[in-house]
Amino acid sequence: MATDHYKIIAQELALSPKQVKATADLLDDDATVPFIARYRKEATGSLDEVAITTIRDRITQLRELDKRRNAILKSLIERNLLTDELQTQIEAAETITVLEDIYLPFKPKRRTRATVARERGLEPLAELIFTQDAIDINVEAEKYLDSEKDVATVDDALAGARDIIAEWINEDSGARAAMRKLYAEKGIISSRVIKGMENEGTKFSDYFEWEEPVASIPSHRLLAIRRGECEGVLRVGIAPPEEEALAILDSIFLVSDNAASRQVALAVRDSYKRLLGPAMETELRNETKERADAEAIRVFTENLRELLMTSPLPRRTILAIDPGFRTGCKVVVLDRHGSLLHHSTIYPHGSEKQRNDASADIKAFCQRFKVNVIAIGNGTAGRETEMFVRETGLPGHIQIVMVNEAGASVYSASEVAREEFPEHDVTVRGSVSIGRRLLDPLAELVKIDPKSIGVGQYQHDVDQSALRRSLDDTVMSCVNLVGVDVNTASKQLLTYVSGLGPSLAQAVVDYRTQKGPFKSRKALTKVPRLGPKAFEQAAGFMRIPESRNPLDASAVHPESYHIVEKMADDLGCTVSQLMQNEDLRKQVILENYVTDKVGMPTLTDIMDELARPGRDPRGEFEAFAFDESVHTIDDLKVGMKLPGIVTNVTNFGAFVDIGVHQDGLVHISELADHFIKDPSEIVRVHQKVRVTVLSIDTERNRIGLSLRESSNR
């Protein structure tokens, strides 16, 4: 069966079965997606993380299908119901849906109307009527009258027979397939406000009287409607035109035009309304929810990736400010490694004396600690604090940067923050988080539940296990793409390193605390419980810049060190000289180092890494500043052209921070002068943009923006 799986997936992804099998074997051997993508290219044919993840998820899906198939076969065998024909159908089923349709007539049932009719001995009558021969149905029904079985009249007998026929219709795999197709293609999702909920549910007012083809409804709209239903505001239904559904079922089950056929027609209508229609609606609800979830999760993970891969501003001494009006601004100073040097509170928005004192404190801190950058949170009082700092007359070399503080309060109250700063309160921890986000966004954001960062849509409404799996994949991908300094990384960052996880991450931190900094990658093997398998998975992604071996600071895996050493020996130089001298590297003939296990993909990666060891893929930091004339929504005017930063990308558009404490929305129709389906084609989270103000609604605190070139001329 596994071989069939490889063929199925290979066909779906336009790959070779060999690639799929090799990838599946590595995954089954507990290799991680980042490790396979980076260090096993020869085995997989250089598949990227997306393809490997797709193979992983599809293999899991097909194995679950096999598990269900085997359970069904076992159940049928135990009840002596399995025939050769039925077994062939079950083994040929390619989806769970088809498999369940085949099994439905044989599935143990709760007590139904058809069950009761069978207990009353009416199944032979149902079989006779279902043949639709020219019979006198009243005469035939009279044969089944039995007062002891509650079949007192002909109508009772015919009703019971119809109940049995209705169940047969519901369980017919052909009928279910036809109805499933009709519901998918012509189903209409409708929502109506529940009487009495008009005022309480105003946020769902767009959907009080709503209809839309289910085949084309966008994921965000479906999730919004479902949320309204869950909150008891909306009544929601999905159905195709009833006359079309009944016409299809009639064409399947009506084979004549007589009294028996008319009984079957009645059973068809009963089955559709009571059994088949509700079953198809439930199926379609689940299917559309899965699709909407998948799309929402895709958007969320793409946004999260962009945010995690934001360019860092490393090796700077940072003064970070968590702004506030009444309670003042919490100020911290962090060294180039993010360690807390000092904390204080200033009141720049109070009396004149407090403002003067705050200005003097800022200047003193900058001079005393040789501050390079000032990071200011973009929450309440953020723009006002930024304006104050810019007016203090600081030296020109000190950068002032606004930092998105979404989720900082969640971190400051977390167990992680308490472990890091047990002697400080939440205000200090929050300020530290703001500063560290500038130093290394990835290292800081991994400490926060991604759902608290604010870059998704309806993330609390989607399948939480699927969301968590996708987010974990994304965080792990980013962490391993960037690499981790094993001597400075937090436990949370190390947790996402390939092959580690929470337990081994803690072991690495404990060993580092007890024994001091790691001096080589090889020293990692001394960490308790970090065995050969974990070392193989993790080593290439863990950097030790201070190691004597320069390869320990690179992405070259220790298993390939001997290759680099052989290259250096062949050129009569050291590994360090090979890494530092481009002319030497140009003399390396890669074909000379190809073996049965090492091919050109790995050798090419090695040479790229030797040229730029330990390079950070996140790019250079670019400073950004809001328009100094705009601080609140009241400062805005229609037609203004302003700089902004994209904070969230959704299916319906993008939200942009323009520095007025309220993000504006660039609707999808205003993202470009040409039609687009996916906003991510145009913008990404944390992208710097220039927008035009289209509309201002101060009552609802809404701002409409445009990115269209025609609006920005």
Task: Tell me about this structure.
It is a single chain. By secondary structure, the chain is α/β, with parallel strands linked by helices. The protein has five domains: 105 residues, Arc Repressor Mutant, subunit A (Orthogonal Bundle), CATH 1.10.10; 189 residues, Tex N-terminal region-like, CATH 1.10.3500.10; 122 residues, Nucleotidyltransferase, domain 5, CATH 3.30.420.140; 99 residues, Tex RuvX-like domain-like (DNA polymerase, domain 1, Orthogonal Bundle), CATH 1.10.150.310; 79 residues, Nucleic acid-binding proteins (OB fold (Dihydrolipoamide Acetyltransferase, E2P)), CATH 2.40.50. It is built from 29 helices and 15 strands. The strands form four sheets. The protein has a five-stranded mixed β-sheet, sandwiched between helices. Strands 11-12-13-15-14 form a five-stranded mixed beta barrel. Strands 2-1-3 form a three-stranded antiparallel β-sheet. A hairpin with a 4-residue loop joins strand 14 and strand 15. The longest helix is centred in the middle third of the chain and has 50 residues. The mean pLDDT is 93.
